[in-house]
Amino acid sequence: IEKEYKIILFTPSPGQGQRLKELLQEKEIEAALKEKFFLVEDSSFLSIVIGDLRKGFIFKEAKQVFVTDEDIFKRYRERRQRWSSQEEKRIKRWTELKEEDYVVHIDYGVGKFKGIETLLIDRKKNDYFRVDYKGTDRLFIPVHQLDRLHKYVGSSDCPPPVYSLEGGRWRWIKKKVRKATRELASSLLRLY
């Protein structure tokens, strides 16, 4: 895009507009955030406008590029929608789990569900979900923390890798995914 063109980016909500502005600032790109299109100033190279625009376009005569946040984050949204459709994989009742099912603990990653065990800890008997990891690693999760577990959903029939609790591999994977997401957003922002 030639420098004399103005870029007007439309986003549906003030919260998304603010987040987009912050993402741009992280990349040292200044953008004016405006509540309405008519408030966009001629001096602004890049403006974020709160409003709906179905599809981006270039208005050559006015030297303006109109972009929707969907144009920028389309791939991200498609992935999120796929994940949303998999939200059904959230475990609502422990009876949905069968022994040997692969599950994902939000903090510790993929493991194998081994059932419920009653343990005596601090002179109190409580029920815990047992999840086995690599080798002899085991995690006992209080049953009231069922929301920390999700059914594993894979893209193939191959069993998922199960890591050790000590290795920090799951934290590394989550960090790598966050970094890749930031890089994707950055490269998309460079396009516009």
UniProtKB/TrEMBL annotation:
Pfam families: CarD_TRCF_RID, MFD_D3
Domain CarD-like/TRCF RNAP-interacting: 96-192
InterPro entries: CarD-like/TRCF_RID, CarD-like/TRCF_RID_sf, MFD_D3, P-loop_NTPase
Protein name according to UniProt: CarD-like/TRCF RNAP-interacting domain-containing protein
Naturally occurring in which organism (per UniProt): marine sediment metagenome
Organism lineage: unclassified sequences, metagenomes, ecological metagenomes
